[in-house]
Amino acid sequence: MTSSGLTGVSSLLQKGLNVLSRASLDARKNLALFVDSMDESGYEPDEQMVFLRGIMAIDNPRLFKRGAVGRQFTDRFTKAQLYEDIGASFQQEDVVGMYPRGGFFLEQQIEMMDKVANAAAQHAGVMMLLGLMRERLGAHYYHGLRAGIAFCSLSELFDPFNTLPLQTKLLAGIIHDVGKLSVPRDILFKPERLTREEMAIMTAHDVATEKILKPFDRKYPHLSQVAANHHLSSKINVADDPHIQSAGVLLRMADIYDALASRRDYKPPFPAQKVECTMLSEDYFPKHPDEVWYLMESFPCPDGC
């Protein structure tokens, strides 16, 4: 980033701190995370101010709703738009679909879409982050929506006695990739496989996810931990809570299933047989065949399962 660019961001940061002097330490850390991720291909100055002020306000929804930031994102991103995006995410080319035979199971999935959109719409900060993900992450945003619905479906069927709040589970899946806002765009949208060094930067987004979502934990207990634990290699601290751990496994499963079965910038969708073999291999989920088969039946691969 150029020195003039750093000066501009620093000035915006100071303005943001002055405007929202009551921001929590967690929110200020999120500001630092954003500044560290800025590069010349990042936001325009006006967008930077919106992002900086918005990130500072995520742990204070009342403050957020009163300001210009809240009005801008409320106008630009609504519950209806989110619901539409979730449906559209399953209709894109070469991605997993919804239950193909209609009837009760498809109705359940549609009901789940509505529950997720409702949960997100109840918190202005969540909608702000989802709006930013929509604008900045492209296919990664739609991947998160599909994985979020699949995760909620898995949780409802295979983890019904999990004591985590329902709102936490409804939100964790669709926002689990928010940390990708900190990944340089040339890595995030690279059209071929990443190098080892680039992969290390990409996989670190789970740590960024935890930092960004930490202020939300007061309203949605353990949201940051569940969302951040969507990689098998995750080093996020989940304490010894079996409910966080079991939710993390199901979220990883939904995330990896969609990554394998749907098209990515660097690869076509895997054939159904390869998806099944990979998911059930020793490196992934050999102890969860029922969950894998459920995903393949309810969210079929593009070539059929």
Which tags fit this structure?
mainly alpha, Hypothetical protein af1432, disordered N terminus, 305 residues
Give the SSE layout.
Blueprint: H1 3-19, H2 25-37, H3 45-57, H4 61-66, H5 68-76, H6 79-89, H7 103-121, H8 124-137, H9 139-158, H10 166-174, H11 185-188, H12 196-203, H13 205-213, H14 223-228, H15 242-261, H16 272-279, H17 289-298
Helix pairs in contact: 1-3, 2-3, 3-8, 5-8, 6-7, 6-9, 7-9, 7-10, 8-9, 9-10, 9-15
Characterize the structure shown.
The chain is an all-alpha fold and 305 residues long. It has two domains: 1-76, no CATH class; 78-298, Hypothetical protein af1432, CATH 1.10.3210.10. The chain contains 17 helices and no strands. It has helices spanning 3-19, 25-37, 45-57, 61-66, 68-76, 79-89, 103-121, 124-137, 139-158, 166-174, 185-188, 196-203, 205-213, 223-228, 242-261, 272-279, 289-298. α2 (25-37) runs antiparallel to α3 and α6 packs across α9. The longest helix has 20 residues, at 139-158. The radius of gyration is 19 Å and the shape is globular. Mean pLDDT is 79; it is low at 1-6, 34-50 and 63-75.
